[in-house]
Amino acid sequence: MGVLWTSTDAATATQGQVTQAFAVTGISIDTRTIRPGDLFIALKDVRDGHDFVRQALDKGAAAALVSRIPEGCSTSDPLLIVPEVLPALEALGRAGRARSRARVLAVTGSVGKTSSKEMLRAVLSAQGTVHAAEASFNNHWGVPITLARMPEDADFAVIEIGMSNPGEIAPLARLAQPHAAMITTVAPAHLAAFENLEGIAREKGSIFEGLVAGGTAVIPTGLDVTPILREAAATAGAVVSFGPEAGSDYRLIDARIAGDATVVQAEHHGKPMLFKVMTPGKHFAANALGVLALAEAAGCDPAVAAMDMGSWQPPAGRGQRERIYLDIVDEAESFDLFDDAFNANPASMAAALEVLAGASPRDGVGRTAKGRRIAILGDMLELGEDEAALHAAISDLPSMASVDLVHMAGPRMAALREALPRAKRGEWYKSAEELAERARHLVDPGDVVLVKGSKGSKVSLVVEALKKLRQPGAAEAHRGKE
After folding, report:
1. Could you say which protein family the record assigns here (predicted)?
2. Which of 63, 204, 249, 471 could lock 22 by a disulfide, CB 3.0 to 4.6 Å apart?
3. Is 114 annotated as a binding residue?
4. Any known ligand binding at 291?
5. Spans of the chain, pLDDT less than 50
């Protein structure tokens, strides 16, 4: 890996003081995952990063960005000393953006940010070198880290921008200075910090404040708040729309789930398009069209990008599907698991349950004889004063007619339990930890199981418990038999 920052360049960018010359090949904020050659950033969060500088250097960090000489360190260590670490990190990100030749693309939205970012990574990789944010690096430190990590020779950069409170998106967008920016959708999320959906739309629309001159705004159609997004995009050099409405530049005609894929029928400026997204979910179809619009804005051929969409699959926790084999000999002794445990709000919950409703269980292989569609749901967080009603409303979704059983974890999910018909009520516990302990009793061979909830609900613990039910070596033994 080549040099990312020399001490001279980093000091110039941050206006900091260097104790010993260095050259770094990466950037890290976590000593648990730090790699030799990294620049360790001593951020203050739950813990003060300065307490871990000595450990970072001992593990091979090439230098550390600090606001003081930490305990256990001295001027003989390679340190870049600045007045405040976070503003210095932002300055480093700003410098990384300024020196880059990449076409920079930014993504925000209530649902689908990370999935769209990863779709972009997949389709752009066939047309150039891509730098994209890791995991969900989309907040006040994640965005500058992503920019500071950007190689000078990248052809494309994909920046994910998120928010929890008003006023967070615009500064990050101005830091990223994207050539094109996309809003995936606007849905009830973070309502504890916003009065209504219109407020969320205005915040999402502020991403366009960061566009470079002549930049492209990509907006969804078919939403009640689409006019607000269009108004926010008015100063962009170009506005490209995607969605179901007639007149959309990328118009979604139909999305059909076919096994483990979604077949997308669309129109691009009136010309027909047909392509596959290699994971089930109609919501992925809409995101894919927005991704194609961004790819075109970056100078790529959208037809080629559509063909390359098949190389993308959702990451763990975001709709990834796998078969869990319970027996090394009998492949029928298995169940299918949709791991969508990373995030949840009413819109994404409805989309995930629609995927579950369209899945096909297998009969005659388990204790219950009939394969079931089972939802294991954790609390949806940050929904404000209407959270009980929003949880209860899950029971009214059309897809729930096809769901056989719902297990639940979290105090907010009690509202859904009360709203469900008695026949669909599974087990409910106050915490995901308690539900995870019941993993063996929640599912049966032949079942299709969805696990969905906000990250803070810790429903991913249930995913881990379900995966531990697999028989060691069974997946390898059955590979190719499905």
Report:
1. Belongs to the MurCDEF family. MurF subfamily.
2. 63
3. yes
4. no
5. 482
